[in-house]
Predict the structure.
Amino acid sequence: MKPKACGKLSSVIRAGISVFVFLSALLLMCGRSYGIADWTVMIYMDGANNLQGGMIDNFNQIAKVGSSDNVNIVVQIKLKNKEKGVVRRYLVQKFEDKNMNPNRKNKLVAMNGDGSDNYSDQVNAKYREILSNWDMGDANTLLNFVNWALTKKGYEANNYMLIIVDHGTGWKGICVDEYSPQEAGRNPNKNPEEIVTKMKLADLGSKLGSINAIISEKTDREKDKLDILGLDACYMSQVEVMHELKDRAKYIVASEQLQGDWHYGTTTEDPKKTGFLNLM
């Protein structure tokens, strides 16, 4: 082939690549909304059991990262001993910016007897909601949290991730709540601390379907769904679980066996190691 023809061919190739890149970018922009966050990450943390210490450590990591213009990080957490089962919701702010110090003596301390919060920092008051004692082993509690996050003004995003953190038992279910006054009310002869509830797999699948209906309504896209479902719990990637949840998210991240805690963000013990929230 003559050099002149090669030059013309190169020009055609370069022009073709430019058109391809432009069309690809245009396709990527379709369906996206600007002026809102890229992600809203909803983290459902059930520490109303022997995982309380791990939940606090996870929250510490999350608060090391904090929300940004591109990522909203919202958390619902329940602990067993320190707060007598009180449930709290947070829009997690980076602790250097909003004084949300991730330590055991700060945001995760006990409530006053009258239900008021004994934490006096008014700067953070608007980022915190305090709830009555809800059963974290009830799929309706999960639905209520996600519905709140999806419909609350300011938490809109182009993509939605839900992470459920607790004990997992595969097809038997997830989220063990060892302090459930609601369930105790149905068992008046037992102490509330002797009542253990667990979210059944079928109930989880059903409520995730309801969650996806809310997402479809928000995005105005038929049969839309969670972009990522994370199950930070043991045994939740078993075939029975995946069969039940296969249509509930575009991607599911889970372990089929015993697992340790996920790494959410930089830790004091290992400041050079980054978690997945650092990368968003």
